[in-house]
Design goal:
Helix content: 40-55%
Mean pLDDT: 95
Shape: globular
Number of domains: 2
Pfam family, one: HpcH_HpaI
Protein name: Citryl-CoA lyase
Structural class: alpha/beta
Number of helices: 14
Strand content: 5-15%
Strand order of the largest sheet: 7-6-5-4-3-2-1-8
CATH topology of the largest domain: TIM Barrel
Cofactor: Mg(2+)
Radius of gyration: 20 Å
Number of strands: 10
InterPro entries: Aldolase/citrate-lyase_domain, Citrate_lyase_beta/mcl1/mcl2, Pyrv/PenolPyrv_kinase-like_dom, Pyrv_kinase-like_dom_sf
Low-confidence stretches: none
GO molecular function: lyase activity; magnesium ion binding
Length: about 325
């Protein structure tokens, strides 16, 4: 069965934690991120990558005890990828983040290896998902085939920093329009294939500028993105709020549903609200907003219960 992850999975915030710093991972469950990423890639020095991945299995339950999904970002290199997957695919993992993807074949090879490890280690078949990160011009050119390569792929992200370096596009307000094109390509491909479109209208590197991060996240949400990664715990709630419907959104959605259903009862499939036409697309969008809010509330309750249980057990 094909899953529309964009409609059924909430992933507003992914908190990236360097897996070689255990004290960061130990506190990650308190941050209320929708997902915690144990990073083996960019935040881990080359000299520590092998030793760090050997600790991933013991870190999985530590990161997951607050109810967040637990992901591992692997190194997508010939010398490290398979070893990273071997170290990461254990009970307690929910997905891997695969950076620098440039073809559907790469996705399928990772999927095959994950399937083997699931079977070997008693993990439900298909449980471990793949989050795709597009970071090169080659990957962008093959975006559609990559996005739809596997039912395991649950999200699509533009790695803006690496992509800008690969293409020579500076990241900044003066190049917003240039970077908007690849960002929207990622979003459209994700939506077409039922994946979660993730990303900011800016760089996650500007984590210390709270006002700018909130603006970038809110703008991304208005463009159709449903979440983003962050590298500092202080950014988590900013993302959670920015990628959630506001009280005003919910109130308006309720009004749209009410007036439209009243119109349908009168035999008409269009009406107006606050001087604007309301028809089927507006009605369907309003239902999606309310459904997303309900799923967010359920996830928040799950995380709250898990955190309370974890704190009580300390």
């Amino acid at each position: 069965m094909t899953i529309d992850y964009a409609r059924n999975v909430i992933r507003r915030s992914r908190l990236i934690m360097p897996a070689n710093v255990p004290r960061f991972v130990e506190k990650a469950f308190l941050r209320n991120a929708d997902a915690i990423v144990l990073d083996l890639e960019d935040s881990v020095p080359d000299s520590e990558k092998i030793a760090t991945r050997e600790r991933i299995r013991e870190l999985l339950p530590v990161a997951g005890k607050g109810g967040s999904d637990v992901l591992v970002r692997v190194n997508h290199t010939a010398d490290l990828l398979l070893g990273d997957l071997e170290a990461a695919i254990w009970p307690g993992i929910d997905g891997v983040m695969l950076p620098k993807v440039e073809s559907a074949g790469e996705v399928l090879r990772v999927e095959e290896h994950i399937s083997t490890l699931e079977q070997k280690r008693g993990i439900r078949s298909g449980h471990v998902k793949i989050g795709i990160i597009i970071e090169t011009a080659k990957g962008m050119l093959r975006l559609e085939e990559i996005a739809c390569a596997s039912a395991r792929v649950d999200s699509l992200t533009l790695g803006a920093e690496d992509f800008s370096a690969d293409c020579g596009i500076e990241l900044g307000p003066e190049t917003y329009q240039g970077m908007l094109i690849p960002r929207m390509n990622v979003l459209i491909a994700a939506r077409a294939c039922g994946k979660i479109p993730m990303g900011l209208m800016g760089s996650i590197a500007t984590y210390s500028d709270a006002d700018q991060l909130v603006k970038n996240a809110a703008l991304a949400y208005r463009h159709g993105f449903l979440g983003a990664s962050c590298i500092h715990p202080d950014n988590v709630e900013m993302l959670n709020q920015a990628f959630s419907p506001t009280e005003e959104d919910l109130a308006y959605a309720h009004q749209v549903i009410e007036v439209f259903e009243e119109s349908i009862a009168r035999g008409r499939a269009s009406t107006k609200l606050e001087g604007k036409m309301i028809d089927i697309p507006h009605y369907e969008k309003a239902k999606l907003i309310l459904d997303r809010a309900n799923k967010i509330a359920q996830l928040e309750e799950k995380k709250k219960r898990s955190r309370e249980a974890a704190i009580g057990g300390l």
